[in-house]
Each structure stands twice: as C-alpha cells, then as structure tokens.
Amino acid sequence: AETSVPVSMLSGFLGAGKTTLLRHMLQQSDLKIGCIVNDVASVNIDAKLIRTTGRDQDAGRQNAGSNSNSHKSTADLTDTIELANGCACCSIADELFDSFESLLKVARKRGIKYDRIVLENSGVAEPQNIRDQFSEARALGHPLVEKVHLDTMVTVVDSASFMQDYSSKAPVAARPELGDGGGMRPVVDLLVEQVECADFIVLNKVDMLEGKVVEGLEAIVSSLNPLARVFTCEHGKVDMDELLGPDVHGLVSNLNTEAHHKGAVVAARAAGGEGEGVEEGAGEEHACGGTGCDHGDHGDHGDHGDHGDHGHAHGGSCDHTA
To answer: Are 115 and 32 in contact (CB under 8 A)?
Structure first.
C-alpha cells in the first residue's frame, strides 16, 4: 500500500514570515517537499530564492538547467500549486482535498514521492477549522486520508507586533494588513487560536526585541499553548531537523477540541510553578475554539461566513512552465 504523506500546516498573520519560513524549508531541507499555498504568485516572485541549481532535487529536474552558479527558474516550482478555493479554512473538505489530489498527481507524473507536503494558509485562516476537516475526513473514510495525513501544525508569530495584536480590540476586518477577508472576529481571538492550535510556534523577528521582552513573549505563548514547542528566530531560520525531521510528529494536530483542551490543562498543571494558574486559565478559556470559550466570538466562528469575499487569486493548479 502507498505510504501516507505527512502534511505540515503553516499558519500566522500576513507578514509574520510564513513564506520566509517556507523558503528556508525548501532551501535547507533535503526532503522532497510539495507545497500548497494561498497565493502562488508570492512564491513565484521569489522563485530564485527558493530553489538553486546547487541542490539536485530529483533527476527530472536536470533539464531545467545545468549551470551550478545560476538560480533555477520558476519551472522548478512545478511542485507548488495554489489552493483550489484560495483559503483552506473556508473551503469545504472536498475543495481543500482537491488541492492535495492535484499535487499528488503532479508527483505521480514526475515519478517521485513527496516526503512531506507543506500547506501554507492565508493570514486569517483558522487552523482549528482545517484540523477539523482532516478529522471529519478520517471519520467519514474519505479516500484521500489514505494518501495524506495532517502531521504537524506550525504557527509563525510576528514577535515585534504580538503584544499590539494581543491587546487589540479591533476586528480582523479592520486590519487588512493581517490578511484578506477576516470578518468581525477580534484580532486577539484569531491570534490566540493560531497560537493554541499548533505543535510548533515560531517566534519570528526576535532581533527586533530586547532579550527580556522575548523571554516574556515565550512565557505568554507557552501559557496559551503548553503542548507546543516554541522556537525563536530571525528571518524564519529554524533548524529544519527540529521542524521537519523524520522523527518529528505533532500532538495537537491529531487531537479533537475536547482532547486538546484536556491535554493543555494537564500540561499546564504538570508545568507547576507560579505560572500554573495562568496556563490552566488560558487553556480553559480559549481551548482552541471550544464551545466553552468566552473570548469574543471565538467559540462558533460566527463571522466565518465573511470569508467568502476574500478576493484571493483562486487559481487551481499553477502553470510553472518555463
């Protein structure tokens, strides 16, 4: 039987550094990585930064160019496609999974198998919703779950603006710089969900903050999500073995909301110390969209319907022919 391909999901506001981290993944990892992105144009613009001829990705690419001192063209992004409906969290499962099927079809045509697929969400995507789509697909026996599975959830945080966003009372719709089509959900509410629904939290741009501020930020995100591993970095440069290694697997990505809530509370209690009360409270209040959440409109994604007006460049499969 064909081995299921693990999926790593990238979440975070626009400008946090998701695409920068994705570029770093593709440059530094020896894995064959397929990509599904919200806006492939943003990846195309920086195609020269993503794949260089110094890396022999597979035999099928030898015709793309043989000059080891030059960069590869956009033809090297044939394993990158755009989300069929622009935004994963407001796609029905079949639409989201169509994107995975399209990518797997590309791999089959090229005679390769991906070691991992990276799904880069839009800035305002709700990771819990996407995790639920995978869970529901498993429960319903969707054929794609035999081919791919959600393995890790990674949230990239703009460390320099975290406290401003964390204390914001504004709706996401009033902050278009965070991503298109956010609706009336509070900025802090979506930020908290993105932090809580993660196996790994990448605190990016820490070079813009003083050391003590970074330590405080680490404490906050750890209290919100005691189940996640927290990385601090500049320009999305994280050790890829720690993030994509063969023995790296997520916990939060495979939990339902109730189990996630219970796990977070247990982890918070196990952490002990003075922070225990804060951590447990954070887990109980937010619980990644649990029905008991009283943080604004977080509980039922009441404004999720507004996502229909995203204005994304919905493009299906992308033509990267040279």
So the answer is: yes
| Backbone φ, ψ for residue 186 (5° rounding) | -60, 145
Output the CA torsion sign for 153, 13, 86, 118: negative
Q: How does 275-299 read in b/e, with b if 16+ C-beta sit within 10 Å?
A: eeebbbebbbebbbbbeebeebbbb
**DSSP assignment of 74-116:** GGGGTTEEE-TTS-GGGS-HHHHHHHHHHHHHHHHHHT---SE
* Tokens encoding 223: 């209290």
| Strand bridging mode 148-158 / 200-204 | parallel
Q: Which two tokens stand for residue 266?
A: 């247990």
Strands (E), 199-262: 200-204, 229-232
Burial of 125 from C-beta contacts in 10 A (0-12 / 13-18 / 19+):
buried
Query: Which neighbouring-strand residues pair with 116?
Result: 33
Do residues 188 and 174 touch, judged by C-beta distance below 8 A?
no
The pLDDT > 90 percentage for the chain reads 46
Token digits for 33?
A: 């990585």
**In Å, what is the CA distance from 117 to each residue of 10, 60, 150, 209, 211?**
11, 19, 9, 32, 34
Residue pLDDT, tens place only, 229-285: 999 999 999 999 999 888 888 999 988 766 666 766 676 667 655 444 333 334 344
d(CA 294, CA 281): 12
- DSSP secondary structure code for residue 167 in this structure: T
Query: Which residue is associated with the tokens 């703009």?
Result: 158
Question: What is the separation, in whole angstroms, between the first and last Cα of the chain?
Answer: 35
Q: Is the dihedral of CA 85, 90, 91, 96 positive or negative?
A: positive
